[in-house]
Amino acid sequence: MLTLLAVFPALAATRALADGTSGTLGSGTVGPSELRPGAVSLDKISNLSGARVLGRGLSEGGGVPRELTPADLRRLIDSAESALVSSDRLEAESLSPPAQVQGLFVQGYAVGGDGGAAFYRRSPVEPPHPGKFSTADGGWWELTTLVPQPEMFGALADGVSDDAWSINDALAFADTIELTGEYGVSAPVVLKQGQSLRGLNPVRSGLNLRAANAQVMTDPDASAYSVTLEGLYIDGRNVAETALRFQDNNNNNSGLRNLRIRNFLELGLTIGANSDQLVMDRVDIGPSRAGSPTSVSLRHVGPGPFYATNCSLTSGAGIGLYSSSHCTLVNTRINFFVNGLVRFEPRTRNTFMNLVGPFLENTGFAHAADGVPAGAPVGVLCDGVDDPSGTTSGGIIIESPQKVQAGWASTLFKAANGGMISVDCRLPWEGNTANRDLLAMDVGGTDSGSFIELRGPWSFVDWDEVTTLLRASPQGQGFPVRVDGGNGQHVMWSADFSSAAGWTAAGAASGVTTTAQGLRFNCTGPSAYVRFVLPASVMDRCVGHAVLLRVETSAAGSGPMSKCILLTGAGLTKTAASRAWTAANGYGRRAFHCAMGYVNAAGEAEVRIFGNNDGSVASSAQVTVHSAQLIGFGMDGPLAA
């Protein structure tokens, strides 16, 4: 459709002309195939006899113009009677258009060609939005574009100048705006319910945040239901505290697609409450190497879940992913964070983070140029509510991981204070590659409900890259390390308490006997324990594999007590005693203990069960051992004892 509009020669940008020697156009004759903007106005054509009229629409680009049919020419002339063309809005504001003119086309906002070209229509009253201006005669004109660009509201799009006011004006005019360039932002850009920011792609179009409080955020005072951002970048320029914020109101059914967020100081993306059905896809957050040690690339506080696919969190001075509410992330890469990859803090029971097909790599380090900072970072941490009832509050479930690598971590997995972690272990883990001793697993918070579940034939690619396999606090409602009994997990030994044969008292222990409840012994001072020697016939089958010792105990009496277990032996490495169950945790209750080791060489091993592991404080507790079992990982065949 032709939109070559002209009424006044001084303002005309029309591209119509006559091609032929008998056609006189203004003061000169136009040659064949020549098409110069503004060369002619329709009211300057004095003679069309024997001539062809050529032209093109404003959107038809360059090249040889096409011949206009009589119908084309009629539409062009009709348009010229009802619309004007102006080089910019300032010039348009100086006009006093005749009443029959119902449209104004401006070729730029401040200067023609600055990207702010737009069509305006006459309005009988002042429009209630920023997409308007008035002409010299007092008439009002409003923007007709359904999906405007910030340039139509004065944005310079040079990546430096503050275009926040232009972007917010555009959002006050339309629910969807298009970002086609790079925009400097020195104040918050605020999205309201149902609004969208849409870029061309996250490499070439986006926002450069140039002040500490500059950010993209949802309306803090109203629902932000169904907000969308896609195809753009948000760059904090190592100045902005937060890049993208969803407030603590209704964020339901919002969507983030094909975004890149980087160079923020504290928060890359923070998601507040009521985020049901907030969906993310192909969101790349990082790097943020200049951020603070407390910075978080993706922070989700809930209540309300979110769902993410094909995302990447990478290279930060703090942690990668934090959540305290339900969430699911599929095929997400989380790597190179100084203070941890994942931190989950469920605040209510039965609250879970689901990581499906994650790529977990390199804790304690962001980039080679930054060096390795001091500290004791944890790769994946679930820190629960610490319910006094000892009930598990929630946890992290990891399915089909693509990679599990510690890198420079102090601890790879830690479940504490009622938190749990369940890991699909079909893929071997990778340990430390550098300067820190690595603890593979830590279950913290005695009687808090914490545990780690290993599903499958758990192993490391290189056992030399891990220092200690497990430090575990005893629990009151199940073992701190649990197994699913699946492929690659085998019971290598189970204690037979039909008699006390093989069990001997050591230290200040005495009176070893059996009852219907199990093995019983008395503590008569500090460091009281019983011991059992696991024969080489058991241990030799475990060479090159990890083993887990699980023991269930209870105690009667009063006064000091410090129950724990230890697996030791010349062929065992990477071991540590379990943490203690003390009098503060209660007499008369079942306690579940775990310890692990790596069988490096053949030979006997020893099980030690302490009623009191305090070397300076005496105990008079009577301890009953209800069960003891050794489980091997990663071995083929039915090796159950």
UniProtKB/TrEMBL annotation:
Report keywords, A-Z: Signal
**Could you tell me which InterPro entries the record lists for this protein?**
Pectin_lyas_fold, Pectin_lyase_fold/virulence
Where is coiled-coil annotated? none
Q: Which domain of life is it from?
A: Bacteria
Signal sequence region: 1-18
For this entry, the protein name equals Right handed beta helix region
* Species, as recorded: Albimonas pacifica
